[in-house]
Amino acid sequence: MAFLYPAFNKEGVKKICSMTGINKDMLMDIEVIKLRAGARKRFCKQDKEICVLLTEGEVVFSSGDITARAARKDVFTDLPAAIHVCKGETIGVTAVTDCEILHIATTNDRVFKAKFYDKKDVICSVSCEGLWENTAVRDVNTIFDYSNAPYSNLVVGEVIARQGRWWSYLPHSHPQPEVYYYKMSAPEAFGACFIGEEAHTVKDGSAGCFPGGKTHVQVTAPGYPMYCCWMIRHLPGNPWDKTRIVDPRFKHWEE
After folding, report:
1. For the chain, how are helix, strand and coil distributed in percent, rounded to 5?
2. Which residues pair with 139 in a beta bridge?
């Protein structure tokens, strides 16, 4: 397991994990990329599917016959947009304004049609509303998972934790590895992430890498909502299908 405070390099890239390098047990390549207005970026991997998600700014996505313009004010008030392609296919990103994107990839032998996920395609829900005096309520934006993209080896979604709330609660695990990329609503904002019994301070731009079988849960400070992009890698013959194994100490809350 690892909790990271990665910095952007001079090329505007922040690396979180790599299948052949840092945190390789996550089984994903994940990096955050900042682009200046007018910049262009191209992504293509011969053995890996790729998803590129917009967190902030305005871009034009392209792949094959897809050309789609997407804009996002910020992660707290606006829904995401993303593009997803299979191995060997190319994603082009042109920055209309300064922007930030997430680049996610993993091995996948399946061939499938490229898809652009517009804001209207995002599956929005509210979790834990009314429970524990509303102390764990959060907004969940699922871009794709096993229910709508069973051909993928990835799950990609977002959580907006409301100020002062817990989320990913109850403490739970699943066999599949998962990565969280956090953004906070102000420079001084903070929260806490618990991986097993270890506590880590969440700051803007930090990341958590959770191996299969490790419980994880987090909380954000009053006054400061917390954003997280959550990314899961399916395991061969064992996809994440909303899988949750609650810590036995807390299972009485499910009864």
Report:
1. 5, 50, 40
2. 126, 160
Does 1 have pLDDT greater than 90?
Answer: no
Average pLDDT over residues 117-128: 97
The b-or-e profile of 82-102 (16+ CB within 10 A means b, else e) is: bbbbbbebebbbbbeeebbbb
**Residue corresponding to tokens 């953004």:** 183
Nearest of 176, 189, 171, 178 to residue 156 by alpha carbon: 178
Residue 58 has which token pair? Answer: 């305005």
Mean pLDDT on 108-133: 97
Tens digits of residue pLDDT in 155-177? 999 999 999 999 999 999 999 99
Looking from the CA of 119 toward its CB, the CA atoms found within 13 Å total 12
d(CA 153, CA 105): 9
Q: Give the model confidence (pLDDT) of 177-222 as tens digits.
A: 999 999 999 999 999 999 998 999 999 999 999 999 999 999 999 9
- Angstrom distance (rounded) from CA 77 to CA 72: 9
Q: Are 181 and 196 in contact (CB under 8 A)?
A: no
Please check whether residue 165 is in contact with residue 16, taking contact to mean a CB–CB distance below 8 angstroms. Answer: no
Residue pointed to by tokens 């194994």:
245
Q: What residues are paired with 73 via a beta bridge? A: none
Q: Residue 254: its pLDDT value, please?
A: 85
Residue position matching structure tokens 């979180």: 16
Report domain 2-254's class.
mainly beta
User: Residue 128 is encoded by which pair of tokens?
Assistant: 């834990």
Spatial strand order in the sheet of 178-184? 2-4, 207-210, 178-184, 226-233, 154-161, 138-144, 123-127
